[in-house]
Specification:
Blueprint lengths: L13 E4 L2 E12 L5 E8 L6 E9 L2 E9 L5 E11 L4 E4 L5 E3 L7 E6 L7 E5 L3 E8 L6 E8 L2 E8 L10 E3 L2 E8 L3 H25 L1
Antiparallel strand pairs: 1-2, 1-6, 2-3, 3-4, 4-5, 5-14, 5-15, 6-13, 7-8, 7-10, 9-12, 10-11, 11-15, 12-13
Length: 214
């Protein structure tokens, strides 16, 4: 089932610097032998010589998305991608301050959620009538990241940003976390359980490694 119509090259990708965002203006695509697809930016707006690559890898019943970006100028504070034109009759569920549900009638058009401060679980769920999709970050280290939810007459837009470790003034590169995208049938509890099962294992293993190192 097609839930969204992709827009952007590739997928709303951009390199984020303290001086502003540099969106991808052109892209070349290559299918690799393992079935993954790599999209390489041919040009970034206002930043000659920069590079940004987005790779999509089929992983079970999901697609894993990763990005790598390099800039000839410092000040890099993130790398982003987006999903756009999600129908307004779908709701956006964000585990922020114990959980919120955004609908077409919710006040405010744009909202930012930062992990791990307010965005408590690195997961967002888009819920329709008995089906939907989710995006989550396969990141047990807890990198800082941001979810931006936008709404206009064309639908919802979800923007995902991975941040390098601060300070940003001298940063010239940023690799994203591994974002995973999947569809589901049922209600929000299906993707919530999917993420919870991963988190319980991943964070327990990470805790055990730290205890062993001590």
């Amino acid at each position: 089932r097609e839930l969204v119509r992709p827009v952007g090259e590739p997928a709303g990708a951009a390199l984020r610097r303290e001086q502003g965002d540099h969106r991808v203006l052109s892209v070349t695509s290559e299918t690799l032998v393992d079935g993954s697809v790599r999209e390489e930016a041919g040009e970034l707006e206002g930043l000659p010589g920069a590079r940004l690559a987005t790779t999509y890898v089929p992983t079970g019943d999901e697609i894993a998305l990763t990005q790598t970006a390099e800039s000839p100028e410092p000040g890099v504070w993130g790398v982003k991608w987006a999903i756009e034109r999600i129908p307004l009759d779908m709701n956006v569920l964000v585990p922020n301050t114990s959980g919120i549900r955004l609908t077409a009638n919710s006040p405010g058009a744009n909202r930012d959620f930062d992990y791990p401060t307010g965005w408590e679980c690195q997961l967002v769920i888009v819920q329709g009538e008995g089906f939907g999709f989710w995006v989550w970050a396969e990141d047990a280290e807890g990198r800082f990241k941001r979810l931006r939810v936008e709404r206009d007459q064309e639908g919802w837009r979800l923007v995902f940003t991975t941040m390098p470790y601060a300070p940003f003034a001298d940063k010239t590169a940023c690799d994203s976390v591994r974002w995973r995208i999947g569809t589901y049938e049922g209600d929000w509890r299906v993707p919530a359980k999917r993420y919870r099962d991963w988190a319980e294992t991943a964070f327990t293993d990470l805790h055990d490694r730290y205890r062993t190192a001590e």
